[in-house]
């Protein structure tokens, strides 16, 4: 018994050491990027920056934040995240609920489920996707960033499996009391599925925030670019034709590496802030939403 207890303690110590080392390896790139963003041009070019800024300066952030287009891209991204997340979550719950029913309650449930799975495996390609959006007349609008991905099939599968894990007696007792499917969904299923909903919310928020390719091909005007698209195009290319005298002064301490580091950190910061509030639901939602077929 003592030997087992000692072995268990040794395993815990080794496990803690391993996970701590793994955590430091994961954090190291972000810390390095943050240090690089606060370092001056010469230190970054010489490769002197590791985990601490060398020649501390905020010039990279001044250069980025002085751009009105940068602030406008943040507004566009926030609008996209709020509207897109609402549409995604609403449609996900409305589709997952009927698909979570048994075949005896929803006769063609399996057929519809496989239709959705088919869209994961096969798609029409980039050109038909682009032409469809163009023909709908929503090009260069916020809806072009939201509607094409309004039905996230992976999230639907995750949530419907979570719904299927809920006790069937809840449905039966609510139906006996005269509750409709709308009441059962919004007053029973949704409150009991907060871990899964928090998980798919995190997927949705991160997906909308990081998406850049659709903004690049669907938006015509730079002021309509979301943040990720703006960082990919405008700031990476460093358009010097539109710079003022103050910008040139700031650029003396800014290099391509430090500017990119500042962009990466600013782009990742909101997700870093949001994730800890949803992390406690994350593992539970993934596990419970994936074990039932």
TrEMBL record:
<keyword id="KW-0813">Transport</keyword>
<feature type="transmembrane region" description="Helical">
    <location>
        <begin position="184"/>
        <end position="209"/>
    </location>
</feature>
<feature type="domain" description="ABC transmembrane type-1">
    <location>
        <begin position="70"/>
        <end position="275"/>
    </location>
</feature>
<feature type="transmembrane region" description="Helical">
    <location>
        <begin position="261"/>
        <end position="278"/>
    </location>
</feature>
<keyword id="KW-0472">Membrane</keyword>
<feature type="transmembrane region" description="Helical">
    <location>
        <begin position="142"/>
        <end position="163"/>
    </location>
</feature>
<dbReference type="InterPro" id="IPR000515">
    <property type="entry name" value="MetI-like"/>
</dbReference>
<feature type="transmembrane region" description="Helical">
    <location>
        <begin position="12"/>
        <end position="35"/>
    </location>
</feature>
<comment type="similarity">
    <text>Belongs to the binding-protein-dependent transport system permease family.</text>
</comment>
<keyword id="KW-1133">Transmembrane helix</keyword>
<dbReference type="Pfam" id="PF00528">
    <property type="entry name" value="BPD_transp_1"/>
</dbReference>
<keyword id="KW-0812">Transmembrane</keyword>
<keyword id="KW-1003">Cell membrane</keyword>
<feature type="transmembrane region" description="Helical">
    <location>
        <begin position="111"/>
        <end position="130"/>
    </location>
</feature>
<dbReference type="InterPro" id="IPR035906">
    <property type="entry name" value="MetI-like_sf"/>
</dbReference>
<protein>
    <submittedName>
        <fullName>Carbohydrate ABC transporter permease</fullName>
    </submittedName>
</protein>
